[in-house]
Inverse folding.
């Protein structure tokens, strides 16, 4: 659960950086925000795979 919360926090931070970068005309900050969001999405996908594997294991037990 902590990993999911950390991923969400990273996503929200990325959204804030992207919005700030757009508002201030800072393309580096905007891109950093997008990268943070992408990293969060990849981590979230990994968590979903782990959850699905655990559910499958539980069903087979």
């Amino acid at each position: 659960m902590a990993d999911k919360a950390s991923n969400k926090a990273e996503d929200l931070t990325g959204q804030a950086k992207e919005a700030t970068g757009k508002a201030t005309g800072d393309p580096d900050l905007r891109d950093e925000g997008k990268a943070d969001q992408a990293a969060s999405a990849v981590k979230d996908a990994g968590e979903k795979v782990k959850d699905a594997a655990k559910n499958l294991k539980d069903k087979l037990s």
About this structure: Helices lie at 2-24, 27-60. The mean pLDDT is 94. Residues 3 and 59 are 24 Å apart (CA to CA). The radius of gyration is 16 Å.
